[in-house]
Specification:
four-stranded antiparallel sheet, 1 helix, mainly beta, about 170 residues, Jelly Rolls, globular, five-stranded antiparallel sheet
Amino acid sequence: MRNIALQRLLPIVLPALLAWGCGTRYAYEQRYELPETGWAWEDTLTFAFDIADTSKVYDMLLEVVHHTDYGFQNVYVRIHTTLPDGTTRTDMVSLELGDKQGRWLGDCGRKRCTLVIPVQQHVFFPQAGRYRLVIEQYMRKNPLPGIEALTLRLRELDLSRTQEQPPVEE
C-alpha cells in the first residue's frame, strides 16, 4: 500500500522539487524590513556587495512590499552609490507602485502588494571591489507609512561585458 502511494506522489513531487531547486540564483540579495511606524528619512538602507569579475553582466532589481492602503502611486528615493575607488554618485528615483488609473502594479493580496522593479538592466561594474548603495526615502511625509520591506537583488546574466552594455555610471 505504501509503495502505491509513493508511486502516485513521485510524478507530482519530483518535478516540484526540481523546479524549486532550479530557481533564480542571485549574486547578491539583502532584505530590509521597515518599522510599522513608517519609513523615516533617517532610516537609510545600506547594501554592500563585492564584484570580482568586471566582465559579468547583471540586472539590479529592487523588490518593494507595500500595504494596499499606501497613500501614493509611487515612492521617491535617493540612491547613493559608492564605487570601490570611493567615487560617489546620488540619483533620485521614482519607484512607480501603481498606474495612472490607481491600480497597483505587481502581485497584490488583500493587505499587501509585492512589486519587483528593475533599477538597472544589463549593467556591468567597471571596477573590482566593494560597491555600496544607500537608499533613503525622499517623500514629503516623514515617517512614510505603508512601505513594509525592500530587497535588493543582483541577478547574474549569461552575458559578458564584451557585448555592448552601459556600465554603472561613475
